[in-house]
Write a structure and sequence with these properties.
About 30% of the residues lie in helices and about 30% in strands. It is built from four helices and six strands; from the N terminus they run ααββαβββαβ.
């Protein structure tokens, strides 16, 4: 029995983690639910260590790679995305230090901060991006768009120099 347990443990250690379509990480639950239910996107959640420039800390967190379809175009979809995320209760993180000109905005819900980035065609070239795109088929007249999210515990921003 002990041998089988050790064998099972050893096999999980040598196998790299595979992207999951399930929430899998509590910090990403709300964002993944929003992407899947409200935005009808396929979302892959993975644990990650976030090098957060806002807090100047490396923190345990998670990332979400999502794919969806839009009939209105990527730029109008990004505007609608951020209007909708506000409407469902996310608020802008205080002193967000995000990149609004690059469609990256940081939002807070409860004790979680998530940096959302809306973009068009695939550009990460990751297994998760491929899987999300394969999972979410496009409807007639839609074009592909993606959302990449990094979620971490909500913390105060580091002092500015």
């Amino acid at each position: 029995m002990r041998f089988l347990l050790l064998l099972a443990l050893a096999s999980t250690m040598s196998t790299p983690p595979r992207p999951s379509t399930q929430p899998g990480h509590p910090l990403c639950t709300a964002a993944a639910t929003f992407l899947r239910t409200d935005r009808s996107m396929a979302a892959i959640v993975e644990p990650d260590t976030i090098d957060d420039w806002r807090t100047q800390k490396k923190v345990p967190g998670c990332k979400i790679t999502a794919a969806g379809g839009t009939a209105r175009g990527v730029q109008p979809e990004a505007v609608a995305f951020y209007e909708r995320i506000r409407a469902v209760g996310w608020t802008r993180t205080p002193d967000p230090r995000d990149a609004p000109n690059e469609a990256s905005l940081r939002f807070r819900q409860g004790n979680v901060d998530c940096l959302f980035n809306v973009y068009g065609p695939a550009m990460l070239m990751t297994e998760a991006e491929d899987k999300a795109g394969e999972t979410r088929a496009l409807q007639a007249g839609e074009q592909r768009y993606h959302v990449y999210v990094m979620c971490m515990p909500a913390m105060p921003a580091a002092p500015r120099e």
